[in-house]
């Protein structure tokens, strides 16, 4: 690497404009920081939500809110970016510095196809390129980031992609003009572990082939351990520590860094890739070939393994056992106990298309008892979020039934259906899109209590303040608007709103994906505390297997619209049967650079 840094932040200060009569001097959010990024280096900028890491990156491309003041210098190849006029900066953005935004759904234009947007970006920075050549480049880059059938998908619109696929489109757009510096703001937040692994491979491959310099902003310390050469730790607008990745993980100097690493959820005792069971059971040839049905038949015939459910079929526990192990959906119908909080039977969801229908969910059976948390995992586009939307009535139910505490939702309408929906809380994956930008935080959190409980005035304000404090936000923030909060802070507002009616069932769709690790730990404790207090059932949709391991009682694994395996958490995460589950576990990053380097070397050797 060259001794002269490619990108250098020198005594950087950032001040946001004041608001109101008593705040005219503004608020300084970054306080004179210094760090360099060498050519060809991957530097991770980490810290809690609101620490200043994203605004530091936005300062490099001069995309801060109107009225913000930037002090110090930001040098790109020796040129001070803060001294350039707007015309010169337009030539830098996208061409020399590309930015992957944290919120892919909000960054993509919903009225244009992704192909149009990719071609537009390429032609904007390469004026001489023909449209056909730009379209070929767009198809190539979509394939590079793992979008299947890229030629066909160029015609798709953002709403036709899952959240993780939208993120891949944004990464493709950023890479399309081969920038010198790629600033990636939480580029893997919405991605499942296997696609995350592919995206990180893409970033490292770009560094190896083209010398691309990467500044990655992330709260995922497993990602940091996997690809970062150096780590810069920020807290409250200052740099607490910066060091090579291996050194920082092995011997963090700052107390804040030690607390940050201690808060990272870890997936312990997971079976290694290529191993069917952690306890040393022999590898099943049917599993190795990905033949789930064949594996199920062999297990049912007497293969020795702990109970699990493969492709929705029960599997016998050991040789000579005549008793059939029931799936959760079948088991809930046995006996005279109370109805499950949520029971999904033979669920089908199909979306009509211009050329062909898309079967997003195909015959899924799930059941969640009161007081139980079921983790639903799988790759982006597997159908897991669609199941959550179907329970909420936001996806077309084309077959099967959904019952909440024994009541078939399809049999209710009007006020009866509204009364049932009061029993269901929801945390959506994208907090920016789910919060009304014209409502204050207090209005968003208080709306369910006002509409359903009739709270007004001081009683409503007290309820909002209590909910804000329960998710570690100051009660005074009730008067702020969503755009004044970081991504993680907005997600906490969404969680406070979701639990405001003390629901019997909580649908949590990636509720911690936008949160830094310390706040994530607090939110998981909050969900646990609330769940124990009110005994609600929870469908917890996530791609973070360590979070699933920490929180959930049972786990269901989805692939291409099917539940391929479900069972107790210990069984699924320590002794997985299905090869797809084993691939997910093998792809989950761990916060240890040495382990990640060894795993990456093994993967490259096997490829």
From TrEMBL:
* ABC transporter domain: residues covered: 7-261, 342-585
Reply yes or no: does the keyword Acetylation apply.
no
Q: Which PROSITE patterns match?
A: ABC_TRANSPORTER_1, ABC_TRANSPORTER_2
Q: Where in the cell is it found?
A: Cell membrane
Q: Pfam families, per this entry?
A: ABC_tran, oligo_HPY
The transmembrane segments are none
Q: Which GO terms describe its biological process?
A: peptide transport
A GO molecular-function annotation: ATP binding
Q: What keywords sit in the KW lines?
A: ATP-binding, Cell membrane, Membrane, Nucleotide-binding, Transport
Matches recorded under SUPFAM superfamilies: P-loop containing nucleoside triphosphate hydrolases (SSF52540)
Keyword match Metal-binding: no
Q: Which GO terms describe its cellular component?
A: plasma membrane
Q: What is its main location?
A: membrane
Mode of membrane association: Peripheral membrane protein
For this protein, the record's InterPro entries field holds: AAA+_ATPase (IPR003593), ABC_Ni/Peptide_Import (IPR050388), ABC_transporter-like_ATP-bd (IPR003439), ABC_transporter-like_CS (IPR017871), Oligopep_ABC_C (IPR013563), P-loop_NTPase (IPR027417)
Origin superkingdom: Bacteria
Q: Which family does the UniProt entry place this protein in?
A: Belongs to the ABC transporter superfamily.
Please name the NCBIfam families in this protein's record: PRK10419.1, PRK11308.1
Its recorded name reads Peptide/nickel transport system ATP-binding protein
What species is this protein from? Answer: Nakamurella panacisegetis
């Amino acid at each position: 690497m060259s001794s002269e840094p490619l990108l250098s932040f020198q005594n950087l200060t950032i001040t946001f404009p004041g608001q109101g009569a008593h705040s005219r001097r503004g608020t300084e959010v970054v306080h004179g920081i210094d760090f360099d990024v060498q050519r060809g280096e991957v530097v991770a900028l980490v810290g809690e939500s609101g620490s200043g890491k994203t605004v530091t990156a936005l300062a490099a491309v001069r995309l801060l809110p109107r009225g913000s003041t930037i002090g110090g210098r930001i040098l790109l190849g020796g040129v001070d970016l803060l001294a350039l006029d707007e015309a010169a900066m337009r030539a830098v953005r996208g061409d020399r510095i590309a930015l992957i935004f944290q919120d892919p759904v909000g960054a993509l234009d919903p009225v244009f196809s992704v192909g149009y947007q990719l071609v537009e970006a390429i032609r904007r920075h390469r004026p001489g390129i023909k449209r056909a050549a730009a379209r070929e480049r767009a198809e190539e880059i979509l394939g590079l980031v793992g979008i299947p059938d890229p030629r066909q998908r160029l015609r798709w619109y953002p709403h036709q992609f899952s959240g993780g696929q939208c993120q891949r489109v944004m990464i493709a757009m950023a890479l399309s003009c081969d920038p010198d510096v790629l600033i990636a703001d939480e580029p893997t937040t919405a991605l499942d572990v296997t696609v995350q692994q592919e995206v990180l491979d893409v970033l490292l491959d770009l560094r190896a082939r083209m010398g691309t310099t990467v500044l990655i902003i992330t709260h995922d310390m497993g990602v940091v351990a996997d690809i970062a050469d150096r780590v810069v730790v920020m807290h409250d607008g200052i740099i607490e520590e910066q060091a090579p990745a291996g050194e920082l993980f092995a011997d963090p100097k700052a107390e804040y860094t030690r607390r940050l690493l201690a808060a990272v959820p870890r997936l312990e005792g997971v079976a290694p890739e290529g191993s069917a069971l952690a306890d040393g059971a022999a590898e099943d040839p049917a599993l190795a070939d990905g033949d789930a049905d064949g594996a199920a038949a062999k297990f049912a015939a007497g293969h020795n393994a702990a109970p699990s459910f493969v492709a929705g079929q029960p599997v016998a526990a050991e040789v000579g056992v005549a008793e059939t192990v029931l799936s959760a959906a079948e088991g809930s119908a046995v006996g005279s106990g109370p109805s499950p909080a949520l029971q999904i039977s033979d669920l089908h969801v199909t979306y009509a298309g211009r050329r062909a229908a898309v079967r997003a969910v195909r015959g899924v059976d799930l059941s969640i008892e009161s007081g139980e948390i079921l983790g639903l995992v799988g790759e982006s586009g597997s159908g897991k979020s669609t199941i959550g939307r179907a329970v909420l009535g936001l996806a077309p139910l084309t077959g099967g039934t959904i019952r909440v505490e024994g009541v078939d939702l399809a049999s209710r309408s009007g006020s009866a259906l509204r009364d049932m929906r009061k029993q269901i809380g929801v945390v959506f994956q994208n907090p920016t899109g789910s919060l009304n930008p014209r409502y204050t935080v207090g209005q968003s959190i208080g709306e369910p209590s006002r509409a359903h409980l009739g709270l007004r005035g001081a009683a409503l304000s007290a309820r909002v303040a209590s909910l804000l404090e329960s998710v570690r936000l100051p009660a005074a923030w009730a008067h702020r608007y969503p755009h004044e909060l970081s991504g993680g802070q907005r997600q906490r507002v969404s969680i406070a709103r979701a639990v405001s009616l003390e629901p019997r069932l909580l649908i949590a769709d990636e509720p911690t994906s936008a949160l830094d690790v310390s706040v994530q730990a607090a939110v998981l404790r909050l969900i646990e505390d609330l769940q124990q207090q009110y005994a609600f059932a929870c469908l917890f949709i996530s791609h973070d297997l360590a979070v699933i391991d920490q929180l959930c009682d049972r786990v269901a694994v989805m692939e291409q619209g099917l539940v391929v395996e479900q069972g107790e958490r210990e069984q699924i995460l320590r002794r997985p049967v299905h090869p797809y589950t084993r691939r997910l576990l093998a792809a989950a990053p761990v916060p240890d650079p040495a382990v990640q380097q060894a795993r990456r070397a093994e993967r490259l050797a096997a490829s």
